[in-house]
UniProtKB/TrEMBL annotation:
Protein name: Helix-turn-helix transcriptional regulator
Superkingdom in the source lineage: Bacteria
Species of origin: Paenibacillus agri
Keyword field contains Nuclease: no
Keywords assigned: DNA-binding, Transcription, Transcription regulation
Keyword Transcription on entry: yes
Lineage: Bacteria, Bacillati, Bacillota, Bacilli, Bacillales
GO MF: DNA-binding transcription factor activity; sequence-specific DNA binding
Length: 284
């Protein structure tokens, strides 16, 4: 059921279910992520057979057709959100809904029926612990509403979860570059060195960077910086997190370094980008 924000006068159309039994799916007027932490689930999704073994995630849109035929010792949690939740919350605190504005686009391919990985995104062994942590904290924030920025933090974790799943799906061939991309998309909030990336695939830095240049038009570390700034741009547009919080969430040790790199790459400061992106997107 929708959450009543006890800090502000509004209803937040999200729901976290700590014990999801998968008996009534999909939920109406919702996007739903079901995080399967143990067991196996089999069924039919939009006339296509699916089989998900833990750890796994099932992503459903409201108009999906799903039938669960078999559940073997399944333990799962779910997070559901109204599509309007993807619209950025403005500074108004008196309305009881989220107005139109910049819209989160990250991860929407996971809920599109014509997408290759519709419904069952790829979860790697390395990505699982981070996804589990983010999903757990997201659920805790829904339940606790610890302060007046709880919705902001939920959007942060939603952007990170959907972004990681989408990136993993786009790099499924498992060439050396794909392996490093998986590593970057999973661990970008942490400190990453070029030496760590070369050890992932047992290549020297010259060979790895040459392969990255051919595939991505950038060096491995250059790609890492670009990806961090991509996530940071989403957080600037769709949350009210401080610059220091965004810097730490995207792998920049100091907010001053984050501001310097963002300004150099984007041609404007993070604060200006936040104001401009919200104004421009809201006018569309």
């Amino acid at each position: 059921m929708p959450q009543v924000d006890r800090h502000k006068k509004r209803t937040v159309n999200i729901e976290f279910i700590a014990v999801e039994d998968c008996s009534i799916l999909p939920y109406p007027e919702r996007f739903t992520m079901i995080f399967i932490t143990s067991g196996r689930l089999k069924g039919i999704l939009n006339e296509r057979p699916i089989s998900i073994s833990a750890p796994g995630i099932l992503c459903l849109a409201e108009d999906d057709h799903v039938q669960i035929h078999e559940k073997m010792n399944v333990s799962a949690q779910s997070f559901s959100f109204d599509p309007e939740f993807l619209n950025t919350n403005t500074l108004s605190e008196t309305k009881d809904h989220f107005p139109s504005g910049p819209r989160i686009q990250t991860g929407l391919s996971l809920f599109q029926s014509n997408h290759l990985y519709n419904g069952v995104p790829r979860v790697t062994e390395k990505a699982y612990p981070l996804l589990f942590e983010w999903f757990f904290v997201l659920g805790m924030e829904v339940q606790a509403q610890s302060d007046d920025l709880w919705v902001c933090r939920i959007k942060k974790y939603l952007i990170q979860i959907l972004g990681l799943l989408e990136e993993l799906n786009q790099n499924s061939e498992h060439s050396p570059v794909d392996v490093v991309l998986d590593y970057i998309h999973t661990y970008y909030p942490e400190k990453i060195t070029l030496e760590e990336l070369t050890k992932c695939v047992h290549l020297n830095r010259v060979t790895l960077n040459k392969m990255f240049q051919e595939r991505c038009g950038n060096t491995a570390i250059g790609y890492l910086l670009a990806h961090r700034l991509k996530v940071a741009s989403d957080l600037l547009t769709h949350t009210d997190m401080s610059l220091n919080e965004i810097a730490r969430a995207t792998g920049f040790e100091y907010d001053t370094y984050f501001i310097k790199q963002f300004t150099a790459r984007k041609g404007m400061s993070p604060t200006t980008y936040r104001t401009t992106s919200r104004k421009f997107s809201g006018a569309q």
